[in-house]
Amino acid sequence: MNIFKKHKETIKGWKDIKLSQLQKLNSLPTEGDEIELMVNQLSVLLNKTNDEIENIPVDELLAEFKLWGFLKDLPEEKRVDIIEVNGKKYGLCDFSKITLAQMVDGEAYFEAGIMQNMHKLLSVIYLPIKKYSIITKKYTIEDYEPDVERENDFLDVTMDKLYPTMLFFYHIVKEYLIRTQIYLVEDMENQMKTMTNGMKMTKETEQQIQLLTQKIDKLKKLKSVGAGMK
Fold first, then answer.
1. Least buried of 62, 72, 81, 162, by fewest C-beta within 10 Å?
2. Helix-strand-coil percent breakdown of the chain, rounded to 5?
């Protein structure tokens, strides 16, 4: 039985790939022969086991793999204000009104790994829409609260909707983190100056300074890495 027959008739492009599949593709091993890599990728893309894929003749595997050639070409950056998934609509938050909780959670997910935590990052900046005007196209969103269900919803977003906005906001988030790190470094250095200015060093003070120094060094390294990303 040819497991590709029906699939060949329906494949269109990025709309056939969910965020959860892209995350799995991103986590696949990159070492091995070409056939092994192809089997692993098709297993994720077609939601089949490796055994099912391996039982298909090589010529059919190659023909199927060519259908996914668009994966090499990323779509252009584009801001997407509203994302609908699983019957729910989520609106992009106003970055000028972002809360401290969103900043803290967003930075933690970013530093833990952008791709594997993308659904969590999206759950921070896209919140459920409470009210929407079809005339003005404006909307209001719910207040931010961490929500596992919302995170899981974004795992099902198809990449035709998600990839353009992922690329768009990657640069925004990167720039935000760089600026945040610069501010934190300056703030910590000012704290150190205040602590050491005319003060007699106690053991507790020395420990605090040591901790601040470690944090400053870490942030400077992060700032250096972020500044080098293009």
1. 72
2. 60, 10, 30
The whole-angstrom separation of Cα 43 and Cα 55 is 12
Q: Read off the tokens for 230.
A: 């293009």
Burial code (b: 16+ CB inside 10 Å, e: under 16) for 126-162 equals: bbebeeeeeeeeebebeebeeeeebbebbbebbbebb
- Inform me whether the pLDDT recorded for 85 exceeds 70: yes
Distances (CA, A) of 2 to 49, 55, 118, 187: 14, 10, 34, 63
Query: Distance between CA atoms of 226 and 212, rounded to whole angstroms?
Result: 21
Confidence of residue 69 (pLDDT cuts 50, 70, 90): confident
Residue 123 has pLDDT above 90, yes or no: yes
For the chain, the structural domain boundaries read: 5-72, 82-166, 179-227
CA distance 216 to 189: 8
Token digits for 74? Answer: 């990323």
Residue 145 clears pLDDT 90, i.e. is over it? yes
Give the per-residue pLDDT at 107: 79
For 35, other C-beta atoms within 10 Å of its C-beta total: 13
